[in-house]
Write a structure and sequence with these properties.
Layout lengths: L11 H4 L5 E5 L6 H15 L3 E6 L7 H12 L8 E4 L5 E5 L2 E8 L4 H5 L6 E7 L15 H15 L4 E6 L7 H6 L10 E4 L3 E5 L4 H10 L8 H8 L18 E9 L2 E8 L10 E5 L9 E3 L9 E3 L5 H12 L3 E3 L2 H11 L3
Parallel strand pairs: 1-7, 1-9, 2-5, 2-6, 6-7, 10-13, 12-15, 13-14
Antiparallel strand pairs: 3-4, 4-5, 8-9, 10-11, 11-12
Length: 348
């Protein structure tokens, strides 16, 4: 049987911070998934505790996705892994020797299901490959962070010492978990660790010996690709065309306010249409001045004070902003605001 080496991902650095929520970003082939399974999930099972594997969509929970994790483990375990799978295709369980090894939980399940999903003796929640790649037309779930909060708080009732781990390739500085935790994404730098009250994010640098090995053995490794440039520079592959301007310049007036998934956004319009050097619109998070100005919502859950539900009749009001978005003539105060507005765009 193979043994774990010392050049692939090691969780000890982030574990030393003793946080409830832990995230590791690093390049492909760093061994994040295998290290979690063999250094955390497997020892936990041997001590009588299970791991909750989190997925995004209900149809992601299937026999093939479960076999992926089991096959990674088989290389390092000197015994058969003859498991029994129950309820796969929804909230399911994987039993080994009649004891739970994994619980499999999709965040896309109905909220009522997430509120009733709690199991005893769970050591870890683990979401592998958390970040989406929008190039492949993938999307996060509506209110994904709220769904995660619902599940985690439910799990805590029977497993109060549970810890959450997320591992991912670094496609973007934005994702719903970072936004919900309050991660300062503008400060994410390759090789650094950022921490908050109950969370830690490690933007991990790959071991140089492993990188040399990948160069030699991976026929698809292209050092000139956007993703590979991240490995050397630390820039996020899908954020290179972002339009973030942390400070709004003068010469803008409040045009439209929105509330989306519980957050308020203000869109400002330039007062100088002739100035082609400045974006036509600037969007920032938060409700700015203009108490009498109506705030538009797209869901009944977002109908706060002074908010109205946007209808087809309001589309003319949004026309200029939508056209500016198409022409990339909009700046944002943060990558989180930009990503949120990409979702709002579908409603305009």
């Amino acid at each position: 049987m193979k043994e774990l080496d010392n050049i692939h991902c090691d969780f000890s650095a982030i574990d030393g911070l003793e946080k409830e929520f832990n995230a590791i970003l690093s390049i492909r082939h760093d061994g994040k998934t295998t290290s979690f399974l063999m250094k955390k999930a497997w020892p936990a099972w041997r001590k009588g505790k299970a791991t909750a594997l989190l997925f995004r969509q209900v149809n992601d929970v299937n026999e093939y996705s479960i076999r992926y994790y089991l096959n990674l483990m088989k290389e390092f375990i000197d015994r058969p892994l003859n498991v029994e799978m129950r309820g796969i295709g929804g909230v399911g369980a994987v039993l080994l020797d009649k004891r739970p090894l994994f619980y499999c939980i999709p965040l896309g399940a109905k909220e009522a299901t997430l509120k009733k999903t709690s199991f005893p003796d769970v050591a870890y929640e683990y979401f592998d490959e958390y970040e989406i790649n929008p190039i492949n037309k993938e999307k996060y779930l509506p209110n994904e962070y709220g769904r995660f909060q619902t599940l985690h708080s439910t799990m805590l009732k029977l497993s109060p010492d549970i810890k959450f781990y997320m591992t991912s390739n670094p496609y973007s500085a934005y994702n719903p978990l970072f936004s919900g935790w309050g991660v300062k994404t503008s400060a994410l730098r390759l090789g650094t660790m950022q921490k908050g009250k109950n969370w830690a994010v490690w933007f991990k640098r790959i071991h140089p010996d492993l990188l040399a090995k990948i160069r030699e053995t991976d026929p698809f490794f292209d050092e000139n690709s956007a993703y590979s440039r991240w490995a050397f520079s630390g820039s996020f592959a899908n954020d290179r065309n972002s339009h973030v301007m942390p400070t709004m310049p003068g010469g803008y007036r409040l045009a439209i306010r929105f509330v989306f998934e519980g957050q308020k956004y203000s869109a400002f319009e330039s007062t100088d249409y002739e100035d082609e050097e400045r974006p036509l619109y600037y969007v920032k998070k938060g409700a700015d001045d203009g108490k009498r100005r109506v705030t538009y919502a797209f869901d009944f859950a977002d109908l706060v004070t002074n908010a109205v539900l946007a209808t087809k009749d309001d589309r003319d009001r949004f026309h200029n902003l939508k056209r500016a978005m198409k022409g990339q003539d909009v700046a944002f105060d943060s990558i989180e605001t930009e990503e949120a507005f990409k979702m709002i765009y579908d409603y305009l």
